[in-house]
Amino acid sequence: MAEPFLYDTGERSQYGCLGHEVQIEHIKAYVCRPSFFTDRAVIVIHDVFGWQFPDIRYIVDLIAGHGYITICPDFFKGTDPWKTTDHWADFADWMKKHDPVKVDKEADVVLKYLKEQCGSKKIGVVGFSWGGMAVHHLMLKNPQLAAGVSLYGIIRDSEERYNLLNPTFFIFGEKDHTIAYDQITLLEEKLKQYCKVAYKIKVYPGQVHGFAQLKPEDMKPQDKPYIEEARRDMIDWINTFI
C-alpha cells in the first residue's frame, strides 16, 4: 500500500525566513508582508510536516513577494506534525487526530485577524497535500474565501465535494502515488456537472507528491520547469481572483 503524503523530503538546504511569528488567539502563525500596504491576503495551509517546515515558509515568502499579506497558521494547534521518522503503521491514527476537513474554526480565527488587524478586504487560500484537502473543504464551506488553490489534495468519498463556492484551482502531479488518476478524472467530470463557479484542474508531467514546494536549490533539473510552471499558475490564479 502506498504511503499517503510521505513524499521524500530528502536533504533540504537552509532557509532564512523573511517573515515573523505571531500569536492569534489560540493559534501561532508565520506571517510575511510585502514592502507596501495591501488589502489583499492569502492563507497558506501547510502539509503534514506543519507550519514550521522550511518549504512551506518559503512558499509564504514567495507569495508575499507578489504583493499579498501571507500567513501560515499552525492548523495542528501545537500538536506534533508528522515526522519522517514516524512509523507508517501509526499514520491512520495520526490522521484521525489531524483531520483536514475540520479546520473551519481556525480558518475563521485567521480570517478575523486578517480583516480586523491587517485591513484585508479580499482573502484567498492555498494549501499543499493535507492542506490541499483543507482548501478543497474550505472552498465548499466558507464564502469569505475569494479563491483557492489546492495542490495535490482531494477530498475523497463525499458527494458534496463538487459544489464550490468560489473559484478553485486544483494542481496535481502526474506521478503522485497518493492520488489515483481516476480520482482526478472523477473530480473533473463532477465539477463540469455541478460546479457553478470558475475552476481549473491541471496535471504536471512526471511530477510526484509534494513537487511544488521545493526551494530552487533543492529542485532536480528535470523537475524545475514544471515546478516553476506550477508556481506561475498558482500566482496567476491568485492574481485573477484576489
TrEMBL record:
Q: Where in the cell is it found?
A: Cytoplasm, Cytosol
Pfam families xref list: DLH
Instruction: Give the matching InterPro entries.
Output: AB_hydrolase_fold, CMBL, Dienelactn_hydro
For this record, the Gene Ontology CC terms, alphabetical, are: cytosol
GO MF annotations, alphabetized: hydrolase activity
Domain Dienelactone hydrolase: residue ranges: 27-241
**Similarity annotation:** Belongs to the dienelactone hydrolase family.
PANTHER family the UniProt entry points to: CARBOXYMETHYLENEBUTENOLIDASE HOMOLOG
What is the protein's given name?
A: Carboxymethylenebutenolidase homolog
Query: What organism is listed for this UniProt entry?
Result: Centropus bengalensis
